[in-house]
Amino acid sequence: MPELLSGADEETPAVARPAAGVSSRSPGAGFAAVGRWARSHALALTGTPLAAIVLFTLYLHQARTAPLNGDGAGNALQAWDMLHGNLLLSHWSVSDVSFYFTELPEYMLVEAVHGLNGDVVHIAAALTYTLAVLLACWLARGRARGAEAAVRVLIVLVVMLAAPARGTGVVIELDSPDHFGTAVPLLVFFLALERLPRRRFTPVLLFLLLVWAGSSDTTAIFLGGGALAVICATRLWQGKGRRRYEASLLAVAVLAAGVAIEVPRVIARLGGFTMHRPDMAFNAAADMPNAVWQSVSAFLELFGANFFGLSVAGPSSGGAGVPGETVFALLHLFGAGLVVAALIKTVRRLRDGGREDAGGDGTGGVGSGGDEGGGTGRDRIAELLTVGILLNLAALVFSTQYRGWAREIAAVLPLAAVVAARVLAGRMTHRKHVALLGAFATVFAAVLAYHATGPSQPPYAHRVEAWLKQHGYTSGIGGYWTSHSITVGSGGAIQVSPVNTGPAGIQAYDWESKSTWYDPRQRSANFLVVDLANPSALQYARPQQAIKQFGPPARVVPIGGWEVMIWDKNLLADLPGSN
């Protein structure tokens, strides 16, 4: 972080070439040069890791304020299976997003060190958010130096530092893999796009980075490949830039999108996991007003600024929120406002087609490794990010697949912070602006520390897990949100496989599950966990339905809002196959 603030060069200064007839410098001289560089960057070399450790610790404590749920637990089980040799996830049926090359390897690393337990999801989420903050600061800084570099980093911190609001914000940005983690490979992609020189290998590397992100989460195709295709196609149409290189980047975007979509199918043909196809359609015209307002709410939620339904002077809207959280949300409107202003300004620059703007950034040419836009006020990286963000927001508004859920645009947060920093910082280097940004960053650091002190929540259905462990029950079935949470929370000592209601009754659920779990020749299950406290959870299994299908249970044990139904037989023998 100090290096990012100072604007120091990232690379070791090159050693001067010896004059003709003079012998090469000794190895000792080279070591001396490295030593001088290390001493000059001592603050950065020590401060950045220290900042990362502090941020990770705070985000970890905040992540623990949300209980482990079925989604994250299912991903933890997939990573655990991969760690134990099932690298292709054979026999697995995942959701409509695999996270196979992105967050699942991260989960594997966490589990290799920490084992399988309810904290895996929290640790990985804290790591992901910390990485996103640091990478966003790096990309935002670009080639700026001095005061502008510091202002850019401050803007990123104002937007991101305490963005995960208590409750929903934590679930969106500090919980299960759910699109936010896709921001990390996207930030790496845009860093490579800006930093790499124009060489033959550059399009190949960019292609691989896009496939890496897009094959794990198709959101990356909007935010990365889609943006690159639109910008490059526009520049080719306008006759700008180096046509061959722009055409190669356009080809990278198109080919990477096609390959990314095909990769999961290839894995399935090789005997690996199968993935559900997303059920997408346009919203009906009558639903658009509601979709627009849901999207506004979701956009504000990303920045911790969603004040809708929060209390003002007392409980309101069913008691949602407390006055303190309302104040925090209103403060975060400042960061959201910076982002909106930057997006509008960038769209105007795109509309004007490169008209000179002395107040612009002028850095970050597309894959140029240099200042392609110097003197024009154009920041190609900011333009790419803006187009990607707008594509993702358009999908949120118009698609039934997104349904206005903030998690579907979670990767927008760090990318939007970068846009705000790169576009606005040049006009905010005055002392009063720096003081204002510093004050907001300080306040949000305090908000983050406050949120990190919240009480940790145990895994969902932890009381059921404790009872099962105490009474020696180790294998059963249950609803989706209950089953994986018990399995991971117990460290795999108790295996509860998810079921769902279908035409044939209670049956195997082929969503984030493994088909071998339901084979009565390989496993026995003698209890069913039913969540009675959550009406929507009854879609997975109802007590009356279970009695009709499996017969009267030998024992029924109520545990809080759950009910454990126990039989003296293997329920898998009477369980139809997955739907």
Report on this structure.
The protein has helices at 2-6, 27-40, 42-63, 70-83, 103-114, 120-141, 146-160, 168-173, 183-195, 201-214, 219-238, 243-269, 288-302, 323-352, 380-398, 412-424, 431-452, 462-470, 480-489, 543-550, and strands spanning 92-94, 274-275, 475-478, 495-502, 505-508, 513-514, 527-531, 555-559, 562-566. It is of the alpha/beta class and 579 residues long. The chain has a six-stranded mixed β-sheet with strand order 5-4-3-7-9-8. Strands 2-1-6 form a three-stranded mixed β-sheet. β8 (555-559) and β9 form a beta hairpin. The longest helix is centred in the middle third of the chain and has 30 residues, at 323-352.
Label this structure with key terms.
579 residues; 2 domains; 20 helices; 54% helix; transmembrane; membrane; alpha/beta; transmembrane helix
> What's the average pLDDT?
87
Radius of gyration: 26 Å
Instruction: Provide the structure class.
Output: alpha/beta
Number of domains: 2
- The termini sit apart by 50 Å
The helix/strand series, from N terminus to C terminus, equals HHHHEHHHHHHHHEHHHHHHEHEEEEHEE
Keywords: Membrane, Transmembrane, Transmembrane helix
